[in-house]
Amino acid sequence: xxxxxxxxxxxxxxxxxxxxxxxxxxxxxxxxxxxxxxxxxxxxxxxxxxxxxxxxxxxxxxxxxxxxxxxxxxxxxxxxxxxxxxxxxxxxxxxxxxxxxxxxxxxxxxxxxxxxxxxxxxxxxxxxxxxxxxxxxxxxxxxxxxxxxxxxxxxxxxxxxxxxxxxxxxxxxxxxxxxxxxxxxxxxxxxxxxxxxxxxxxxxxxxxxxxxxxxxxxxxxxxxxxxxxxxxxxxxxxxxxxxxxxxxxxxx
Length: 252
Fold this sequence. Notes:
The protein is α+β, with helices and mostly antiparallel strands. The chain contains 8 helices and 9 strands.
């Protein structure tokens, strides 16, 4: 996405339409026309592309004899940021989740999904209880799963869709109740790896800012001091430690 007019407008990379930048999202541009806060906003500096290979036989899982193997739908774990910084976008996220999960139900009715929320702490939900009680884990340096996830937390898209829809629409109110500033993404990713260790699956995580508390937290680099110097190449080096090791662990 290209920003123009000193950062006051942005151009869509698909249709070329010029749009005004909201006041609360405005940032000045550097000498290269790049937003000065681009590296601090994942939505501006990170991204992913997914290719749907359903219907392509060459991608089918096969057994030792080369015959296609019928597999169960992948588990989907949604990890949602409900910190104060994320509050303004939670209704949009809830609406998007509702639409996406409805489409998933039509295509993969036996798929199991679940939810974890986080801010300065981690929040888990017992979906097997009628009032869906929330369990809070404040230890984000050594995070753990506080309840038997397999028995109490997975929901089936076909059988439990009403309960799923009700919870998704609660997300904005959960942020109001939490009233937390922190962002413990590292702890959220860690517990997601613990949840999926036995069954495997996919983690879909929303984040409003860099991790600033708990395991995996780090301070933003002072990019403006390094631009144009011999040390500018340091900005291209990844931060070693937790994120490197958790990436290897999740890949396994």
